[in-house]
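Thread title: Can someone regenerate the structure for this chain?

I was given the following input by a collaborator and told the matching structure tokens would be attached. They weren't. Posting the sequence so someone can regenerate them.
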Amino acid sequence: MMKCNSLFLFIFTLAHGYAMAQTSQKIDEILTAYESPNPGAAVAIIKDGKIIFAKGYGLANLEEKIKVTDKTNFRLASVSKQFTAAAILQLIEQHKLSLQTRLSDCFPELPAYANSITIKHLLSHTSGILDYDDVIDENENTEQISDEGVLKASALFTKTYFVPGAQYRYSNTAYVLLGLIIKKYSGLSYPQYLAKYIFKPLKMNGSVAYVKGLNQIKNRAYGYSKKQNNWFRKDQSSTSATLGDGGIYTSLNDLFKWDAALYNNSILPQEIWQSAFQNQKLNDGSEINYGFGWHLKKNTANEKVVYHTGSTTSFRNVFYRIPSKKLSIIILTNRNTPEEMDMVQLAEKIIAAYETP
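Best answer:
Regenerated them for you:
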């Protein structure tokens, strides 16, 4: 019987290894365009708490020909919003504020529109607050706006796009202000708070909310844009210095630890996590496809998907999760293509390659 069991284990292991080799080959074919000498990609598939596929493609630094690895730190762009939301939910759990805390309570200097906007509106993109992206030219030669600069700009707004809670409209301003609210109610800057209460507890040792001149990015991927079939470095723009809406740099290795934390109580109790993954409602009771820091959808198999894309100057990313399967895929890239939502299709294409025999 022992010999029989050993033989079965050997055959199973061999078959599993062969299947993963086939999967790896299919993923390689999907990501051919990311191979060296091009700007690259870092891709991981996580299943049942284990990394079953992780690979770097192409270059993190074209000038020095530094390859992408699982330790390469990419600018997350809007994938950062889930960390901002988690920090706010931690402060709510500590009773330092609530979902009903008004924006005017946080920043009394803002005009009357802030009286009707709550933390919940900001988290779910239903505040109607004007987006600073709409009034700033995203140009690398323009002086970078800071979070405090966004707050000053918000003080000049005289209206909102709509009555708070009446519609869904994605807002980077909302998450920049949430980052500043973290600072106000915790007494720590946004980078300090995340380092102390999220990155350090999870041993996400390479992750940082980046502020030029204040901290450093280890194993950094630089962003590149394509012009006349040539890649050139275009790593920053006027809107690349804000934090709460997109300022985190991290790697596959660290995001694996973050993904694990979404299933346990290490950062937040599960009931609070579940509230972040729930479709929020408008004033009329209709649901939107957004929770707190996460987009929500159903895939073709009618499974709930919790995900977020990220797009900024020369970075395109997606963190895509199917919680019912404990299956996640992370794709981080340092280039200005494709369109942001195409990253969702890319994730689904890779998942299909993994799930199809």
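The first strand starts at residue 41 and ends at 47.
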